[in-house]
Design brief:
6 strands; about 230 residues; alpha/beta; 6-stranded mixed beta sheet
Amino acid sequence: MMRMIPSKLIFDTETYGLKPDNTVFDIGYMVFNPKWGIVKRNYLVLETFKVEKLKGIPFYGEGKVNKYLSLNIEVLPWLDIMLRLWRHIKEYDVKEVIAYNLPFDLDALSHTNNLLRGKEFKMFDGIKKTDLYTVFCNFVKNRKDFPRYCEEHGFISGAGNLRTNAEVAYGFLVQNPDHVESHTAMSDVVEEYQIYTEIKKRKKRYQMEAEPMPWQMVSHNRENMKRRRRG
C-alpha cells in the first residue's frame, strides 16, 4: 500500500464582523502537497448565511450578496461541513494548517462551533499551525522595496504605517497594485495559496507562529511607532 504523503491545508472564513459578530457564514479550504494536485472545497453555512443580514453590512450590500448567490456555493449544515473537513484532514494526512491572520479564523471557528454545536473546536489540535500574516511581515520586515511599493501606491494607514493585509501582500508579491480582494472565502484561499507559494520560492525559513500584531515587525512601522510615541 502506497504511503500517504503529508499535506497542508489553507483555509479562510467570512464572518459578519469582529466579536461578537465573528460567526462564520462562508468557509473555504484547499488541501495540497508537492506530489499531487489540489483539493478545493467551499461551503455556505445553512444556519448562519442570512441574506438580509449580509445586505445590511456596508461592505457587502445587495450587489455582493447577489454575487454570492450567483456562485452557486453548496449550502450545508455546520455539522456536515465539519465532518467533510475532518474527513479531508484524515484522508490526506494534513500536517499543517495555514491562514492569513490565523488567530482571527481560529477564533471564528471556535465561536461558530460553540454557537451551533455547544462544543469547543478542536479539529486542528495536534496539527502545526502557520499564520501567513506573520510569515509575510517577517518576509518584508527589512526589505526596502516594500515601503517603496506601499508609498508609491498609497498603501499607508492614517497613522502612517504600511498596510500589510492579505490584499496588499498578494498585490506586492505578484506586482499588481490594482488588485482588490473579492472577500469570498474561496477567492481569498486561492490568493493566500499564491502568497504562501511565492514566499516559499525564496527557500528561506520564516517565523510561522502568530504574533499578536505582525505589522509591527516591519521596520518602517516600528520606526513610525517610535516617532509617534516620542511626539
